[in-house]
């Protein structure tokens, strides 16, 4: 083999190795892109809707139409996402939310010398929309079981009639969260039978 043939063969081998070194990563990268595209692009902030559970301790406000006077108390909500998805580029989920609230009312409908304590146990479906990095909105609907304990509302109290002390009623609410970190948020809920404000731990 002449020197010229040897140099030609060596140059061909170098060129082949160089092409292979460039082509193999490109092919691998192309395969990776195909896999990612097959899964579908995820909207920005999609991970915010993937929390396993929400724990929400809160203060509770009860409007006058429940017992006849404004009530105050506190409670806890638990939310468990059941379905996670997106509407266009907006992540969302459907969660089951349930919990309990205890409220104290100082007065009844017609007198100032009686009061009541209520235990309210709501169960609702909650639809969450993660509209921005720091903001999510939700609406919920379901039912709540209530149990009341009344003090000083006896037959001697003129005009003071205690309402039903046990029953089931519908509950509806809208609300939102301001996310202060990846795993916590301030949460406001406005609805019937209660309005709540507290912290959510996601």
Précis, in short:
The chain is of the alpha+beta class. Helix content is 20%, strand content 52%. It has two domains: 1-40; 46-201, Beta Barrel (Porin).
Briefly, what CATH class of the largest domain? Mainly Beta
Nearest-integer average pLDDT: 77
Shape: elongated
The strand line-up of the biggest sheet is 1-2-3-4-5-6-7-8
Into which percentage range does the β-strand content fall? over 45%
In terms of per-residue confidence, which ranges show pLDDT below 50 for 5 or more consecutive residues? Answer: 2-7, 19-40
The helix count comes to 2
End-to-end separation in angstroms reads 74 Å
Question: What class would the helix/strand composition place it in?
Answer: alpha+beta
- The portion of residues assigned to helices is 10-25%
The total number of structural domains is 2
Q: Provide the succession of SSEs.
A: HEHEEEEEEE
CATH fold description of the largest domain: Porin
Protein model, in words:
The chain folds into 2 domains: 1-40; 46-201, Porin, CATH 2.40.160. It is built from 2 helices and 8 strands, in the order H-E-H-E-E-E-E-E-E-E. The relative contact order is 0.16. It has helices at 3-39, 64-67, and strands spanning 54-62, 71-87, 90-105, 115-129, 135-151, 166-181, 184-192, 195-201. It is of the alpha+beta class and 202 residues long. It is elongated and about 55 Å long. Strands 1-2-3-4-5-6-7-8 form an 8-stranded antiparallel beta barrel.
